[in-house]
Amino acid sequence: MAGSGLARDQHGRLRVLTAIGHPLLRAAVREMLGRSPGVDLIGEAEDGLRTLEMAATEKPDVLILDVSLPLRNGLEAASDLRKALPGSKIIVLVDVEDSRYTQAAAQSGAYCVAKTSLSKDLQRALRGD
């Protein structure tokens, strides 16, 4: 997916919704997004069910989901979100690079980013590289 193919709002900005249960990881991602030009953080959810509710209302361009979300994990939520928001990009954060996660994310139409390489890989995924 090329960076120019990502959906953007009328001002050319990416609207991002995050769903991360752990407060420290959520804060780190928030800080990274705050330093990303052209990116607006439009909401933060702490569990998979709230993510589905917020996404239905906010219709983000990009969703960043933690694989270990409570109530509905990131891969399950990604599958539901792909059906509800086919034009949105979905990024699933995983603890370790593992082909099972990568395969499951791909089946949900999502990208997989390891938390260990979050800074570099999240920026690339947002650009669509």
Please, could you describe this protein's structure?
It contains 5 helices and 5 strands. The longest helix is centred in the N-terminal third of the chain and has 12 residues. The mean pLDDT is 85. With 129 residues, it is α/β, with parallel strands linked by helices. Strands 2-1-3-4-5 form a 5-stranded parallel β-sheet, sandwiched between helices. Helix 3 links the parallel strand 3 and strand 4. It is 41% helix and 22% strand.
Summarize the structure.
The chain has 129 residues and is an alpha/beta fold. Helix content is 41%, strand content 22%.
**End-to-end CA span:** 7 Å
Identify the CATH homologous superfamily. Answer: Response regulator
Q: What Rg do the Cα atoms give? A: 13 Å
Structural class: alpha/beta
From N to C, what is the helix and strand string? EHEHEHEHEH
**Widest beta sheet: strand line-up:** 2-1-3-4-5
Mean pLDDT: 85
| Global shape | globular
Stretches where pLDDT is under 50 for at least 5 consecutive residues are none
Highest CATH level, the class = Alpha Beta
Number of strands: 5
Using the coordinates shown, work out and report the CATH topology: Rossmann fold
The name of the CATH architecture is 3-Layer(aba) Sandwich
Q: Into how many domains do the coordinates divide?
A: 1
Major sheet details: 5 strands, parallel
Number of helices: 5
Question: Helical content, roughly?
Answer: 40-55%
Strand content: 15-25%
